Amino acid sequence: MKRVMKRYLLLILVQTAFGCGPSEESGKSPTYCEVRPIVENKCLRCHTDDGDAETPYNLETVEEVIDRISDVEREVQRGTMPLRLNLEPEVEPLTTTEKDTILDWIDAGAPPGDCE
Fold first, then answer.
1. CA nearest 59: which of 80, 78, 32, 89?
2. Model confidence pLDDT, tens digit, residues 50-64
3. What whole-number distance in Å separates Cα of residue 50 and Cα of residue 34?
4. Under 8 Å between Cβ of 26 and 96
5. In this predicted model, what pLDDT tens digit does every residue of 70-101 receive, in sequence order?
6. What pTM was computed for the model?
7. In the chain, where the domains are located
């Protein structure tokens, strides 16, 4: 067991020393540019003026998303959005990666980014 642990620690040290560990990119906070495709694909089906379901608010712009940031965060954490409505085609739930991206963006202060 000690031998395995020593090898594991050595591997970590070598990766860190030679830059083979996590890339700097992976430590970078997402901006709305990374969140926008998720919102477009999973939220805007309903959260627009002419969406498939009546919703209490729109999420069409970064400003509208930021205005509702606490609601977005709560629903993403709970896993309750998007609702599993009986629509065709079916509404797909958020993936773990999509949830992480949204929550990381919120944790970073919801930077808008330069998406254009």
1. 32
2. 766 677 788 989 999
3. 24
4. no
5. 999 999 999 888 776 666 777 788 999 999 99
6. 0.70
7. 29-107
